[in-house]
Amino acid sequence: MTKEQILQWLQAFAVQIEQNKDYLTHLDAAIGDADHGINMERGFKKAIAQLPTVADKDISTILKTVSMTLISSVGGASGPLYGTFFLRASTDVAGKQELTEEDMLAMLQAGLDGVIQRGKAQLGDKTMIDVLSPAVKAFQQAVVESKGMLEAMQLTVVAAELGMKDTIPMVAKKGRASYLGDRSIGHQDPGATSCYLMLKSGLEVLETKL
What we know:
This protein has helices spanning 3-19, 21-31, 36-50, 59-73, 78-91, 101-119, 129-144, 149-166, 190-208. The two termini are 13 Å apart. α4 (59-73) packs antiparallel against α5 (78-91), α5 packs antiparallel against α6 (101-119) and α7 packs antiparallel against α8. The chain has 210 residues and is an all-alpha fold. This is Dihydroxyacetone kinase subunit L. Pfam families: Dak2.
């Protein structure tokens, strides 16, 4: 995946967030503060505005810039968690202008590890981890089987979508949603949903290059 595709990925994610802002906020209204879509849209609009200033830099610098913007402009838990994801991801691709499948795996794994460390959530807690964890596992398996970037991302997004839907019957154990206990059952987690949209955006960029 080239640096240009990474930039397109971030822009595509921002578009997805904008298009799904009301949906994400609707999901969050059921089990959270009803602000996930609003916060994410505001943060990514600011992050995208910063991209022209780093478009000539390496992938690490681009991701780090997105991270810093999100941390400073997104409210609630989303800013620190997504900011941590992009910050940790950036550390594993320092100096790179293009990512191999192994690079992408390292980047996604670092991002996942960062979110786990920051949010203290585990698989099954009804959070974005329930999307990120199976997604990274799917990408890792694709790398083991020597699949190309496109097929690896296709498998990753399939796993991410399943992970997102799997949050519906879960009891939330982290964040505002955890206060609801069993009443959180039956609702799809908004953070898991935006995380799925992030990975889906990356796949769409790869598919448009075919």
